[in-house]
Amino acid sequence: MNRHFITIGGNKEFISGPAAIVELEKQLINYSRCTSDDKDVLVFLEPDNIPVLEIRGDKSNTVFSCEADDAKVIQMVAITHGQPFRASIDVRPVKGKAQTLTKFLHYRHAKT
User: Fold this and answer.
1) pTM, whole model, 2 decimals?
2) Angstrom distance (rounded) from CA 64 to CA 43
C-alpha cells in the first residue's frame, strides 16, 4: 500500500490535551475532504501504527479508543494532559459497509 499520511507536529512530539484533540480533528477533516469514500480515514498512534476509532478528552487525559484486535479486544490508551505522543493520519480500504472516520468527542468544563 502506498502510504500517504500527515504527521502531526511535523515529526515532533505532540502534547496531549484539548489543543491536540482540536488539531487532530482539523487535520483529519482536511485530509478526508480529498479522500474517496472507499477509504477509511483514521488517526493512527505511532510508533505502533494503532488505528484509532475515537478520541475524547476528559479533565486530565486524552483518551484513544483503538480498533479491536484479532481477539475482539478494544484497546484504550489514556495519555495524561501535558505528556507527549505521536500520531499520523492515514487511509486504508473501507473495512465495513461505509467509510469510517475517527470520531472526536470534546470535553467541556461545566460552568459553576
Assistant:
1) 0.81
2) 10
